[in-house]
């Protein structure tokens, strides 16, 4: 009897994840989100710390598609024994489009494309290099609505391309393409949906 009650409760909970109609997003909804990523690594004498925060604002233009804008700030610090620390600060701002597969349900998967203006500053000792450029990325993720207005979000960067040029004379253009789905590419954040009306 006890097993039957537990099984029924678990089944009811799982069913509510897929069929709750009061959760999720629909056309006309506005949502603000904030994702963050951080990491620390030590290999031999090299210690690396990094952090990124990326708030955004999106509008559901249909029941499945959101368009929005946001920015990212991040920093990376590398420490090597007997050498000056390397510090890299990043800033980017841009637009995105996101497709939700089941937007009106409590749990949904999404894919997102984005295009950003990028500005970087790298310092080591007394040397400083500034660079500007653009980046584009394709990512996927999932959203879980904890209430009608708040959701947890996890996204995974899969494919990205960046083109930038340092600001000194004769500097070469830097092009970087990344493809991967490792834990270092995971971002976790929160979404707040504004009530309509």
TrEMBL record:
InterPro entries: Beta-barrel_OMP, OMP/PagP_B-barrel. Residues 10-183 form the Outer membrane protein beta-barrel domain. Keywords: Signal. The keyword Magnesium does not apply. Residues 1-20 form the signal peptide. This is Outer membrane protein beta-barrel domain-containing protein.
